[in-house]
Design goal:
single chain; about 425 residues; alpha+beta; 2 domains; seven-stranded mixed beta sheet; four-stranded antiparallel beta sheet; 12 helices; 11 strands
Amino acid sequence: MKICVKHWNRRGKSPIMSILGPSMMLRNILVLLALFLAFVQPLAAHVVKQLYGEFATEGQSWKLEILFDAGYADPSTRNDAAAPQPSRDWLVNLPPADQQRLCTEAEKYLRESLSFRSRSVPLEWKVSFPDFKTQPPAFPSLLNDGAYFHALIEPSGKSGSVSVGMAGGDHPDLVVKMPAASGESSYLTVPPGGEVVLLAGQETAEGETPVVEQGQNSAAIAFHLGVKHVLGGLDHLLFVLGIFMLQRRWQSLLKQSLAFTAAHTIALGLAALGWVDVPRWIVEPVIALSITALAVENLFVSKAGPWRLWLVFAFGLIHGLGFAGALSTWIHPGEGFLPTLISANIGVEVGQIIVLFLAWSVTMGWSESKAWPHFRRWACVALVAAGLIWFAERVKQYHSSSSSGSSSASLMDESPNSISTRLRFHPFEMASSISS
């Protein structure tokens, strides 16, 4: 060990570099990078991680309204990471028979996932779908243009206290917005296999009263979603690595990261207010191209000048529009809008700093070696290729979905077991979905 340390100090190389040599080290790093990309690829697709609901009391009764992702009503694609998210237009144009099937599958899934109890006694409950009762159906319009409808859960009879449980396994979290007793609403999270009290009710004969947990406010939830949006979204991860690969200096890295987050905040706020509306078929391909653009510049320059900051800022605007879709359940004009907006983007900045710090730490020691320029060059080439591939895939998927979506014929004509054959591409996790 002492010999290795001495060798490092004398020649400026790590012991591992001295043993393996630059070419072998470079090859191993590229293999690890390829494995990493292959492993995390599903993270960029449409997989529901959370169900979002709003709880309310009416006299001696209660109701829980779930915002349900229509694409999640199909059992064949529910946990398929490659399945795209359907659009609202797709849902509106579905024949009534197919819409009814969505309701049937949604109720079946909710009953498999959720359980309600009044203290230790199971509660009987019913599900209705109010959006389908009007003509045309009153489906919600969210920032990501996704296909969602409301599922209203109510008790079949009277109940005092009520708690809700989420089944374990691959089920998502349930995030419940609680009524605002005083001031801002709070949010309770029910993890898979967990249970929380929603309504305390009256004291029992034994003198016991169920306790409703203290929930988080919307700003806290948005902060976590911002961090997850960076760490759980492959396109955002690779964009941050594109920033890192230009110049491994903290002053430059922080300037670019802050420029990106500032633009991200502006675009997300404007989209949430409804002042800016850019179609998803434009936003998603451009996000893919942003990775390629940064990597191409990295191949020709070695320092971040003013142009670089403006380029990162411009792409931050595009990424912010993409994140607006992932946060469409949480960020909207009204209660807590500004704190939620700021918290979400603070989370984005924290997530980016985590990625930059990890990249900086991993490359510490051998970044000054002869192998580093070769690794940097080929890593940027890989980023260029990844961005171009994603761009082509997203353009192709939008083109194919728009072509097949021009007809309102029943989806069952193409596949009797799947409602996903005409779905529109959307690579972000929905927070009712977080995240993004």
